Amino acid sequence: MAEALSTEVDHRRVTLLVYSSTESVRAKVRSSLGRHPAPDLELEIVEATTGEEVIARCDAGGLDLVVLDGEAVPTGGLGLARQLKDEIDDGPPVLVIIGRRDDAWLATWSRADGVTAHPIDALQITDAVLALLTRTPGAVVPGH
User: Fold this and answer.
1) Which of 25, 40, 104, 118 has the most CB atoms in a 10 Å sphere around its CB?
2) How confident is the model at residue 120 (pLDDT cuts 50, 70, 90)?
3) Is the C-alpha dihedral spanning 75, 116, 143, 57 positive or negative?
4) For residue 45, what is the DSSP state?
5) pLDDT at 1
6) Rounded CA gap, 41 and 25, in Å?
7) Do the beta carbons of residue 42 and residue 34 sit within 8 Å?
8) Could you tell me where the DSSP H helices lie in 14-121?
9) If we measure between CA atoms, which residue out of 64, 58, 19 comes closest to residue 37?
10) With contact defined as beta carbons under 8 Å apart, do 107 and 98 qualify?
């Protein structure tokens, strides 16, 4: 009797931190990415509403990617990205969401690994997240 072929796909589980002071932005990121943005990838999304929470969570470790809202207040995601890059050795890649596409230079200043813009586009943010999660160390993900 032949063995049945398994149709189950091995899932890589990753933890993604989403930071924004605005619930609707966090909700849009969650809904855009879903739980399985790729067939072999399962996301656990944790959220932060303050800059202090982001720093504490990043210090604790266990994150595979950090998504920061550049328009968050009072602590913006661009400044946080720069702080994370300056203070955490071997930290997770950082994706920033900028307010305007013309602000992409700020993402460069922040040393973010990837950039996307408001309004959040589900396809663009998913592409950026997948590129960062599967990139070769040292590779730069271009902005959208």
Assistant:
1) 25
2) very high
3) positive
4) E
5) 46
6) 22
7) no
8) 23-33, 51-60, 77-87, 104-110
9) 64
10) yes
In this structure, what token pair is assigned to residue 62? 């266990």
Confidence (pTM): 0.87
Q: What CA–CA distance (Å, rounded) separates 5 from 41?
A: 21
DSSP state of 38: B
Q: Token pair for residue 91?
A: 């930290």
Q: Is the peptide bond before 74 cis (omega within 30 degrees of 0)?
A: yes
d(CA 128, CA 3): 39
1-20 tens-digit pLDDT: 444 444 555 679 999 999 99
Three-class SS state of 18: strand
Residues with Cβ < 8 Å from 3, sequence gap 6 or more? none
The structure tokens listed for 96 are 């920033």
Domains of the chain are: 12-134 (3.40.50.2300)
CB burial class (10 A; 0-12, 13-18, 19+) of residue 45?
middle
Q: Evaluate whether 116 touches 128 at the Cβ level (below 8 Å).
A: yes
